[in-house]
C-alpha cells in the first residue's frame, strides 16, 4: 500500500462488469486512479466498454474492453482468459452489471401476480446469475494468489423491499446472501466479499436534461424521502467501491453497505 494513498490497489488487475456507463464507468476510472495494474471494462455494448477502456489508457493505465453478457458463464470464462493474456490475472471483481440486462428495462409497472413469468428471467439472469457467473470465473485467480476483493453492487429494493419490483428485489437480496456466504469461504485466502446497496442514482446525462428531471414534481416528491436532499451520484458509488477494493478494507467482509443519502438506514 502506498504511504500517501490509503486506497492504493497495489497494482492488482480489476474487472468491472457493467462498466461502460454511469456508476460502472466511474468505478473503472476511480480504480485506475488508485494504482490498479490494469482495468478490464465489461459491458454488453462493445462500443461503451471500449470508450471507457480508452479513457483509462489515456490515464497511463493498461485497460481492456471485454464485452459480454454476464448471464453467459462461458463468455465470462473467456473474458478471464483474455484478461490474463493482456493484463494479467484479475484479483479484483466488481459485479456492477444490473437492471434488466440487454433489451430490458427497470420500470415499476405491475404487481408481482400481474407480471408475466417470462419477465422474471431478465431480472434473475443479470442480477443474480450474472453475479454467480463472474464470481465463478474470477474467484479462482484470487484463491491462487491468496489475495483479492469481490464487491457486488446491489439495491435497497433487496434490503428493504420495493413494490412492483418483487423479482428484481429478490435477485438483489439473493446476491447479498451469496456474498455473505462466499465471504466465509474466502476469508482463509485473504479475499474479502462485500456489497454496496444503492437507492436512487442519477444517470450521467447532459445538464439541461438533468435540470428538467430535477425540476419535476415527481422528482421533488421522491427526494423528500432522503435525509440528504439529493440523489446519488456515480462518484459516490465509485468512492465506496474503491475503498472496499483497497487494502484499507482488509478486515471488512460479508457486509452490505447502504449508500442512499439516508433513505433507508441500516439496522
From TrEMBL:
It comes from the Bacteria. Pfam families: adh_short. InterPro entries: NAD(P)-bd_dom_sf, Sc_DH/Rdtase_CS, SDR, SDR_fam. PROSITE patterns: ADH_SHORT. Belongs to the short-chain dehydrogenases/reductases (SDR) family. This is Glucose 1-dehydrogenase. The lineage of its organism: Bacteria, Pseudomonadati, Pseudomonadota, Alphaproteobacteria, Sphingomonadales.
